[in-house]
Every structure is written in structure tokens, then in C-alpha cells.
Specification:
It is a single chain. The protein is built from 15 helices and 15 strands. By secondary structure, the protein is α/β, with parallel strands linked by helices. The chain has 2 domains: 2-251, TIM Barrel; 300-372, Arc Repressor Mutant, subunit A, CATH 1.10.10.920. Strands 7-8-6-5-4-3-2-1-9 form a 9-stranded mixed beta sheet, with helices on both faces.
Length: 377
Amino acid sequence: MAGIYIHIPFCKQACHYCNFHFSTSLRYKNDFVAALLKEMDIRKEYLDNESIETLYFGGGTPSLLNMDELTKILETLSHCFTIDGNAEITLEANPDDISIEKLRGWKQEGINRLSIGTQSFFEEDLIEMNRAHHAQQAIDSIQSAQAEGFDNINVDLIYGSPSLSNERWKQNLEIAIRLGTPHLSCYALTVEPKTPLDKMIRQKKAHATNPDQQAGQYSILMDLMKEAGYEHYEISNFAKPSKRSRHNTSYWKGEKYLGLGPAAHSYNGIERAWNIANNQQYIQSIKENKLASEKEILTQTQMLNEYIMVSLRTMEGCNLQFVESKFGKIVRERLYENAKPFFANGTLQEEKESMVLTTKGKFLADGIASDLFFDSL
């Protein structure tokens, strides 16, 4: 199984918390699309002609693409790669970009999954985040997508902002559940360096986040989603039966993927590569028939640590048989020995041949993974 991620680096406006690569100017959008199409041809051998089972349009804001641009991109992808007939094709969309015309166009072009950047169903939260849409648009966009036949929809929600009460967070989740949303991705508000939010906090124009508040709202999240019948299949992701994100699951399983566009990352089982996070330099390099990117050949230690980190985030956990098959029996034994304190304190548990985070452990996932990392093999 292989996947392709396409980074569309444009947004209408900058959300205060966002540190992804994007531009609020559409000046170079035409040149970007031309460069993106050419990059596909340059890198069509990267995945060794494996069948592509997932396509993911991320960003930025992919819903800013017009239908002609989206059609050209999909046609070129089909020309350069073998796209599986049952491929999951996801488009990230903001509520204010969603219209009946666009929904019908997306469906006609083969988009079969939407990830809607709702973040909140309350006006005060959206204003605080500097989102471009309004609360009613958040609800309307989901209902419109459902009415047009999209039954595979993700909704993004953010918790843990200083002004978000537990009650309003519950209401956000209850609205998403009541709308019949089959998949939710819920993230704690993170203050990333050099973002507007970071600057506002340093200037005392916004309050810092509270770890205890965030932990409490994560607990509310887990309880409500379990009660509503969602599968907590990854630390931040919840799905109704058969509605897991196949694309993101492939990341967590260590499958190969190709990242196209500025700032996009790729992995082919041996190396990681990443394109330059600058639209103009990305475009210019491809005009010169090369790609401004860097790469890193992964060591066995890096591969093991990455597996520990991503596998522990999933409900299946870190499989010890897999560790032994890929890294050897001695490594498996060392890893199990290192994990014993976490079994003892109730943050890890054994399930068949896997080490799985308990509910208590999910609050400490990154720290546990870090403590289990190997310095060398």
C-alpha cells in the first residue's frame, strides 16, 4: 500500500495557532499548479510503481482550488501513477469554501472523503482562532456534504484554548455527534513558535494554555466518544466502524508515501525527504528541472524509534513480534525490559504480543514513547 499527499500552500487568512506552510497571497497559484504537475512527472518513480491506495489533498486550504485546477491535478496523478480503483481520495475543505456546486464537482472528480476544518461550532472560538468561517457555516457545510452523498467525512475540532469551558467543549462534541459525523480529529491547542498566538501570549494579549484544563477536556473527549460508539483508534482520532482514515493509518503503519508540493514530506522505506517550504523557490527549482528538497537515510535506530512513537499512538499498540522480525530478538527483549516500569504504573498494558497505552497512558503518550527510545542498536 502506498499513498500520495498533495500540499496546497494557500489560505484566505492566517489562523492564530497554525504553523503549517501556507501563503495568504494567491499571486503564485497558477505557477504553483504548473510546478506541481511537473513535480509529479519528475518523481513518478519514487514509489517504484506501487499501486496508490490513498490520495490526500492537504494544506493550506485545498478547497481554494478551482475545478479546472483540481481536474488537471487528478488527471496528471492518474497519468503518472497507478491509482487503485477503490482509492480513498480525501480533500481538506474549510466550511466557507463549501457550496453545492463545489460538492458536486468534487464528487464528479472522484473525491470520496472530506476533512472539514470546523475547529468549533461556536462563534467566540472561531473569532479567537481567526478562522474565516462562521459557526452556522460549520454546521451547514457538514449537512450540505451529507445531502450531496458524502458519507465519509472527518471534522476537525480544537480543545484546550484558555477561553473554552468544559461545557462548551461538550457541546462541540455533541453537535458533531448529532450531525452523524463518522470521523473526528480532535487536537489540543498547541502554541507553536513564531505563530501569531505565540506572539500574542508573549505580549500578554492572550492567555497561555493550561495543561490541566487540556487534560480534563481530553478526558471528556474520550468518554463522550466511547459512549457515542466511536473507535478511539489513534490518540487524536475517533471513527465509526469502517470509517478510519486509510491515509493517516498508512502513516502510522510505516507505509510508503510521496509528498508533492512545497514543505511536503516523503518516505520510501529507506529515506525521508522533504521539499523546501517556500513557494517561489519551489516553483523556480522545478522550472529549472530540479526539485529543491533534502533527504535523510534512516538508521535502524531511527526506524525503531519512529515505530515505537507512531505505534503507541494507535489502539493496536507496539507489536513486539514486528519489532523482533525487523530488529531482532535482543532488541525486542530490551524494549520489553524498558517498558516494565510503565506496566507497573498502569500506563502500558500487554495485549497478546503488543504493548498498548491504557487510558491513563494516553495522557502521557509522547513522554512514554520518548522514554522507550533507543540511543543505538
